[in-house]
Amino acid sequence: MTWVIGNWKSNGSIAQQQTFAEVLRGYKIPSETHVVLCPPITLLYPFHQSLINNDIKLGAQNISATESGAYTGELSAEMLKDSGADFVIIGHSERREYYQEETVLLAAKFRQATTAGLRPIFCIGESLLARKNGTADGYIKQQIDDIVAATDISAWENALVAYEPIWAIGTGETATSKQISDMHQHIRNTFSKHSATIARTLPILYGGSVNPNNASGIFSLDNVDGGLIGGASLHIDDFCQLIASTDTA
Ligand code: PGA
Alpha-carbon distance 109 to 51, whole Å? Predict the structure, then answer.
């Protein structure tokens, strides 16, 4: 199976939602492809209503670390489920960097998600400095070991991992095929130290400047189970081409 997951980040309007819904309602998803769209929260329920009975699933981009209650501004796992989400992105590098989200908080979010039956899309990725000075493997292993220690490997049964080198996000610069395959192998090996069963089935997605031109090449690499796509997922034509490219991957 190949995953195409769109991450709209803090973008999108009602008008854009309507255009997407209109095209996607009639769009034939290839049978070996999973499509998930993660719009901003304001568009989650409109998408849920307009894509009902469609193969496209929905995700949120963030989740509260606590249950529903007196936490002004927070969106709990139950609320996300209620609005139509089946997935949630956790640990995106933008949240780690701009909102200081670290392992303890991410683990609490992960637990909230899995307890409510939401599937986490857990993001990991190294900085340009780590890539340049040869410490990327060690950094990624540490990110995995830390979150697994804080959550328990058994909670990963329905999770997905997105490897997103920070230097490739929104920059137009993708990692090379070798960098991607090597790192995905390394990620799978690292998970296998925690559980061979989880490591075997865990979808590992690549993210970072995936677009309709490079998608099928990336999706066909060893150990790559699809992509987490930002910029290109905002354009309906590109998004449809990304989905179609899984057929050739
Ligand atoms: P990008 O973003 O495709 O715009 O590089 C990917 C992501 O941050 O998930």
Answer: 27
Q: Does the annotation count 92 as an active-site position? A: yes
As given in the structure block, the two tokens for residue 22 are: 């209109």
| Burial profile 197-211: b = 16 or more Cβ within 10 angstroms, e = fewer | ebbeebbbbbbbbbb
Strand residue runs (E) in 146-203 = 160-163
Is 164 a known active-site residue? yes
Kindly report the average pLDDT of the chain as a whole number.
Answer: 96
What pLDDT digit, counting tens, does each position of 135-193 carry? 999 999 999 999 999 999 999 999 999 999 999 998 888 889 999 999 999 999 999 99
Active-site residue (options: 101, 164, 184, 186): 164
- What is the whole-number distance in angstroms between the Cα of residue 170 and the centre of ligand 1? 5
pTM: 0.97
Of 225, 186, 188, 189, which Cα lies nearest the Cα of 206? Answer: 225
Q: Other CB atoms closer than 10 Å to residue 240's CB: what's the count?
A: 15
- Quick one: pLDDT at residue 26? 84
